[in-house]
Specification:
Layout (H helix, E strand, L loop, with lengths): L2 E2 L2 E3 L4 H14 L12 H15 L2 E2 L13 E3 L2 E10 L8 E5 L9 E10 L2 E12 H7 L1 E3 L4 E2 L4 E2 L4 E5 L7
Parallel strand pairs: 5-7
Antiparallel strand pairs: 1-2, 2-8, 3-4, 4-5, 6-12, 7-8, 9-12, 10-11
Length: 171
């Protein structure tokens, strides 16, 4: 396991990939999604990776409304996993993002994951850090759709809150 700043390389298995693909197919297209559901597979794979690493219970596909508020449970803490697809490994100054429309969720902590893809094939994954949910919003910068994030010249696609990975806590 390699560590860069607080970023930890976290391997995944073929079984995790298979589980994530099944869950993504069952979920289909979702309305409140930056990628219109196209990131479902990556999101579920991120959950699989964090659940395995933290030995947490996945609830994101359970019945009931709680599945919309957080993804995992560990030691009575509600954990929301936020995953980004990448073409390169993450760096400490890259951003952990939470879309404004996700504010209805009610986790205790956020865990941020980056997965490097080659086309639709995941190659490597990293857990980039965690942050207490309340602290995250105190420290994060809000960007409106269309804003340009001056740290990386990224044109913001949805209203969101960003915080660099190097400002997150180690998992």
């Amino acid at each position: 396991m390699n560590m860069i700043d607080n970023i930890i390389e976290a391997p995944f298995t073929k079984e995790m990939v298979s589980n994530a693909k099944k869950k993504a197919k069952n979920l289909g297209k979702i309305s409140n999604s930056i990628l219109g559901g196209g990131g479902n597979f990556a999101g579920y794979l991120g959950e699989e990776i964090v659940a395995d690493y933290m030995k947490a219970l996945q609830i994101s596909t359970d019945e009931g409304d709680e599945k919309y508020s957080y993804d995992l449970v560990k030691d009575n803490q509600k954990i929301e996993v936020k995953t980004k697809r990448r073409t390169v490994p993450p760096k400490g100054f890259y951003d952990a993002s939470v879309a404004d429309y996700s504010r209805h969720q009610n986790p205790d902590i956020y865990v941020f994951v980056s997965i490097q893809f080659n086309d639709n094939t995941p190659i490597k994954s990293w857990i980039c850090g965690k942050k207490d949910a309340k602290e995250y919003f105190k420290q994060a910068t809000f960007y409106s759709r269309g804003d340009i994030d001056s740290s990386n010249n990224w044109k913001v696609s949805v209203d969101c809150y960003n915080l660099p990975y190097n400002k997150l806590d180690r998992i």
